[in-house]
Amino acid sequence: MEDHPLSYADFEGEIPEGYGRGIVRIWDEGNSEVEKWTDGEILVRFLGRRIQEPYALIRFWKGNWLFTRRKEEDHES
């Protein structure tokens, strides 16, 4: 998919058929801090209105990724 202008970041509404089709709703917004980024693991802390917790993306076999919330003590160590 091509890049979109930053002005699209707050878009909510319906996308028509032929261009992804579906409803877009903003569930949370805020910032994030990347704590670690390697080929096999990305550790990030979300700093949103709803979610303010550490998460991990871990690469698995055949390019699949696991997205999971980390325990707070994992973040602090």
Question: What do you see in this structure?
Answer:
The chain has about 80 residues and is mainly beta. It has one domain (about 5-75). It has one helix at about 70-75; strands spanning about 15, 20-25, 30-35, 40-50, 55-60, 65-70. It has a four-stranded antiparallel sheet, with no helix packed on it. It is extended and about 40 Å long. About 0% of the residues are buried.
Q: Whole-number radius of gyration?
A: 16 Å
Question: Could you give the count of β-strands?
Answer: 6
The major pleated sheet works out as: 4 strands, antiparallel
How far from one another are the termini? 37 Å
Write the layout of secondary structure elements.
Blueprint: E1 13-15, E2 22-24, E3 30-37, E4 41-48, E5 54-59, E6 65-69, H1 72-76
Antiparallel strand pairs: 1-2, 3-4, 4-5, 5-6
For the structure shown, list the relevant keywords.
77 residues, mainly beta, four-stranded antiparallel beta sheet, extended
Summarize this structure briefly.
The chain has 77 residues and is mostly beta strands.
